[in-house]
Amino acid sequence: MPKLKTNRGAAKRFKTTGSGKFRRSKAYKSHLLTRKTAKRKRNLRKSGLIDSTNVRAIQRLLPYA
Q1: pLDDT digits (tens, 9 = 90+) for 11-52
Q2: How many structural domains is the chain composed of?
Q3: How far is CA 17 from CA 45, 49, 56, in A?
Q4: pLDDT at 65
Q5: Which of 18, 19, 21, 37 has CA atoms 20 to 30 A from the CA of 49?
Q6: Is residue 3 a part of any domain in this protein?
């Protein structure tokens, strides 16, 4: 079996947690921030976990994560 290539775009967007889950950053934090409330922007700073339906797809993109 040849070595598998890691998808570099996915590698920059997802990190693995200690338990093997995938951490992601939240969207809607780049522009048009004046109309968003401080609470909303504060919650967007926190990272989230990817949904269970997407786990297999991310594992294929990141074979060594």
Answers
A1: 999 999 999 999 999 999 999 999 999 999 999 999 999 999
A2: 1
A3: 17, 9, 16
A4: 86
A5: 37
A6: no
